[in-house]
Amino acid sequence: MKKLLSITLAVLMLVSTFCLTAFAEDVAPASADVYVTIADNNGKLVLTQEKITATDKDSDGKITIDEALFAAHEAKYEGGAAAGYASAMSDWGLSLTKLWGVETTNTLFYKNGAKLETGVGEDLVKGGDKLYVSINKDDTYYSDKYVAFDQTAISTTAGLETELTLTDEEGNALAGI
Q1: Nearest 5 degrees, angle CA 129-CA 43-CA 172?
Q2: Smallest Cα–Cα separation from 106: which of 40, 29, 9, 17?
Q3: In terms of DSSP bridges, do strands 86-90 and 93-99 run parallel, antiparallel, or are they unpaired?
Q4: How far are the Cα atoms of 49, 83, 151 from residue 80, in angstroms, in the given order?
Q5: CA 168 to CA 150: how far, in whole Å?
Q6: Which pLDDT score, from 0 to 100, does residue 19 have?
Q7: CB distance 129 to 34 below 8 Å
Q8: What end-to-end distance do the CA atoms of the chain give, in Å?
Q9: In this structure, are residues 55 and 30 in contact, taking their beta carbons and an 8 Å threshold?
Q10: What are the residues whose beta carbons fall under 8 Å from the beta carbon of 40, sequence distance 6 or more?
Q11: Whole-angstrom distance, CA of residue 33 vs CA of residue 148
Q12: How far is CA 19 from CA 62, 64, 84, 105, in A?
């Protein structure tokens, strides 16, 4: 009797595991609140740490940089993503072809202060991530660089000096700027 009960419980546990796996496949598309900064080809910040709710447009269970930038344009660009954003497959994977209404393939991408190692269609975002995207101005020598201050937010009192450090994409402090 105990043996039969043990076998029955083992079979029930095994069956319930398959049911849970099948249920997980039907989960609604994911979303994540990310903070997006975009600089246009004149160096003007057109978005600065704007909270954007990115969604899993293709229902693959992941949210990519491409999906986050699409959502940013839908929410903040006049005319939405159809007017201001485009991406297409290239020799390097999914690549941007239009950012903030400017047709370009010369862009820089950083997530949480680090350069993207993969393409916009492969690199994933999660809630709280900070995206920094710029259209490079130099289409000849590609000399544009990513720089950032050591702090993204500070609290200070009017009239008091506040010291910040500006660093390049390798983390080197830039003096005299």
Answers
A1: 65
A2: 40
A3: antiparallel
A4: 18, 6, 31
A5: 10
A6: 46
A7: yes
A8: 82
A9: yes
A10: 46, 100, 102, 134, 135
A11: 22
A12: 22, 29, 43, 45
- The reported pLDDT for the residue numbered 17 is 52
pLDDT given for residue 63 in this prediction: 96
pLDDT, one tens digit per residue, over 21-61 is 444 455 544 899 999 999 998 889 999 999 999 999 999 99
Q: How far apart are CA 166 and CA 177, in angstroms?
A: 8
Q: What is the per-residue pLDDT for 138?
A: 83
- At 67-113, the pLDDT tens digits run 999 999 999 999 999 999 999 999 888 999 999 999 998 999 999 98
Residue where the block lists tokens 């903030």: 100
CA gap 89, 77 in Å, rounded:
23
Q: What is the mean pLDDT of the chain?
A: 84
